[in-house]
């Protein structure tokens, strides 16, 4: 991974965040913002420089799976809620909430539809998944894409934190249409 120690320091992560984590057999279903494994069986793990080279090639579909921040419960009546803007890798699509360990059938359908759109329905089309540093959502999403039958899957565990650390460009993204309302 890219300069993991420097990135951890800048992000205020504890030194334990640099420890090796074993790849689980199943999806991660809780504590999504913790150290992640350095592997993804069936996929290719890339660092920021490699992700940037894939992005520059224009041949890889980039999929941001950062979850959407939930609307706080018990907001006073009449309170206007505005989603936090998502700044991400230019040209990526944002499929929020598809990286949870367990997802509803509507979320599976949303995820599959988004992947189908960016790959032109070709399961061999290269696709790269990311979120933030130490976020299991992207690992889960990449694992799920492999289970859906995608064969050229990249996982970028440093996500937009690693991307912006190297001062690569970002742009504001809107979530892909059709996002299920409730999990």
UniProtKB/TrEMBL annotation:
It comes from the Bacteria. SUPFAM superfamilies: Rhodanese/Cell cycle control phosphatase (SSF52821). CDD domains: RHOD. Residues 89-172 form the Rhodanese domain. The keyword Heme does not apply. InterPro entries: PQQ_CXXCW, Rhodanese-like_dom, Rhodanese-like_dom_sf. Residues 1-19 form the signal peptide. Gene3D superfamilies: Rhodanese-like domain (3.40.250.10). Keywords: Signal. This is PQQ-dependent catabolism-associated CXXCW motif protein.
